[in-house]
Amino acid sequence: MRFLALAILAASAHAAVLDRIAVTVGRQVITESDVISDLRVSAFLDHKPISITPVEKRKAADRLVDQLLILQEAAFSRVPLPSREDAVKMIGPIQAQYGDGWDAALARYQITEDGVIGHLLAGLRAMRYTELRFRPEVQLSDHDLRDYYGTLAQEWKQKGETQIPTFESSREQLEKLLTEQRTSEALDRWLGAQRQETRIRYRDEVFQ
Predict the structure, then answer these.
(1) Please, are residues 102 and 109 in contact by the beta-carbon 8 Å criterion?
(2) What does the domain layout of the chain look like in residue ranges?
């Protein structure tokens, strides 16, 4: 019995080491396993090799902090967000990409289908809140669109493009692209302010 108790304690201690706290965001916690899971699922979705380096772990932690800040604000605002069913609907096309190798790929990346769904759901909810919160603030003038078109046209010319669309023929696409850019910029400014107002602590030992 004493040996069994010691074994349980040892296993518990080992599990605690594996699931160290990576970041504290106010009173919320992001664990090292959360960070690694994000890297594994992201690599799986992108069909890329898994890279769990200190630099990549820090990037993943930053993404999770931003996502947590967004979802906390969304919960406080009580805005309608996507449900788990919405994320489940996204699994079909991803499964089709892997075909019969779906289960083998999950095992290779050391993730589960439920983990993929959770990853997709968190991303969907953050994206929906961003659209609802910041997109309505974007107001584009004709000058904004023409200036943006001029920038893109110059880039196309530098790349050697010969068939450059006219401003009028590309106006709808310009509005979409510039709106997305301005929305992203508004989100970045908001996240910067939230990070300053929130006590966020990264545990250096996790990212070494």
Answers:
(1) no
(2) 2-139+173-207
- pLDDT, tens digit (0-9, with 9 covering 90-100), for 158-201: 988 888 999 999 999 999 999 999 999 999 999 999 999 999 99
* pLDDT tens string 187-197: 999 999 999 99
d(CA 22, CA 202): 6
Statement: 2-139+173-207 belongs to CATH 1.10.4030.10: yes
Enter the pTM of the model. Answer: 0.81
Can you say how many angstroms the Cα of residue 155 is from the centroid of all Cα atoms in its chain? 28
- Sequential DSSP letters for 137-203: G----HHHHHHHHHHHHHHHHHTT---PPPTTTTHHHHHHHHHHHHHHHHHHHHHHHHHHHS-EEE-
Question: Dihedral of the CA atoms 115, 207, 59, 50 (nearest 10)?
Answer: -50
